[in-house]
Amino acid sequence: MISPTYRCAGALDEDALCGYNFLMAKNNDKIRKYRGLRLIEGGLPDKEDAEKEFVSAFATDTRLMGEIAMGIHWKIVDHPEAEDLYQFFSFDVQECGLDNYKSSWASDIDAISYIRQTLVGPLGGEDVNISEREARALFTKYRQKCLDADLPLPEGRREYAFLEEDPVVLSDKEYNDLFCRLCTPVTCDNQVINYFLMRVFSCDYEGAAYLAAEGMDVDLYPEMSYALLCKNTIEKNGDLYVCRSLVEYRNGHRLISCELTVENGLVTSHRRVSDMPVTVREASMMLTRSEFITAFRIMAEPETFEEQPLEFNYNTMVTEHDNGRLYMAFHNNNDHVKKSTYRLSDDVLGLYFITPGGEFIVAAYDEETIIRLERELIHGPIGFLLVPVAKFEFKDPILYDFANSDFDDFLEFVSLLTEE
């Protein structure tokens, strides 16, 4: 048998060239057969690209608050190294659209519970089961709102890119059905009025129309762009409800008075009575309330304390500051909307602030709540590391001021305030 000759340089000699041509001619038919094939790379595809099978989904019934959280559970069917995918989205229905995303690639109960506690729980709503089509439609709707506002999409886009590739738009009937299920049941007139004014001031006419009588114009403040209802007081005068609303918008604050009528759970009329700008100081005075604070000293080194399980009994939101970490604990419902005096911040139950210097600060807006938070903390997993060192009652909230100050020591901050 003749074999081809391999050389490091130069041309093939005559004998080698004849041998090479002979082999090429002999295997020509085989070569033709394989020309239509392509090279396939080995190895597993990335888990983000794996095929996903829908298992279940939910969304919160918090549409009237202006925010919705959604969770989707996917089964991974063609990737042996990837466990199920749990996705969690947060939607701002008015301005931001899709504004947050978290996920877990495993059935890790602790990880999933933490995401629910920090992303879903603070909204104070109930879970509503939804279909895959409805989940995809909500994603499509609020993703587009985010893009229309020229806002960046949340991190983790590689994980939810497959939802972008298959957009879903519901029919009017399908969307109305879903919309109604995502609105918490309205049980009293105060709740109707507070939700209605929230939606009107935020220019969410879709949400306002849900709470208004058919045919009623809900574009009641066309000269004002998106505004936040910070406080609303309701007084009943015969068949009328008289409201005084403090709103915050891009250019400042306004105090707006109006009269409304409510029948069968719907606003049937609205009349603006007065509308005046207020200063930041005036707005602050209207929103002020007492703050009860207890300061603890952490009897452990920072590294040791960080290793301890920090567990709260409430849904919390965490924010990092230069002088520590703030945990905001929320009520598990939105019953504050049913009150005749509504405050935006009334969904907050209490605050925890931990400084690098070893201070653990607890704050609440009434004495009963601060006592409850103290007891739960002392009898919790880290209670043996905490020693109470001071208790305060302030006429105005100060913990946020400390969190945004240049001070690292809370007691030093309080001492300066006392001197002033």
Description:
The chain has 420 residues and is α+β, with helices and mostly antiparallel strands. It has 4 domains: 1-38, no CATH class; 49-181, no CATH class; 189-285, Nuclear Transport Factor 2, Chain: A, CATH 3.10.450; 289-419, no CATH class. 30% of the residues lie in helices and 31% in strands. It has 13 helices and 16 strands. The protein has helices at residues 14-26, 28-34, 109-120, 132-148, 157-164, 172-181, 189-201, 205-210, 280-287, 302-306, 367-378, 399-403, 410-419; strands spanning 52-60, 67-76, 85-92, 97-104, 127-129, 227-237, 240-249, 252-263, 266-278, 291-298, 315-321, 324-330, 341-343, 348-354, 359-364, 386-394. The strands form 3 sheets. Strands 11-12-14-15-10-16 form a 6-stranded antiparallel beta sheet. It has a 5-stranded antiparallel beta sheet with strand order 4-3-2-1-5. The longest helix has 17 residues, at 132-148. It is flat and about 60 Å long.
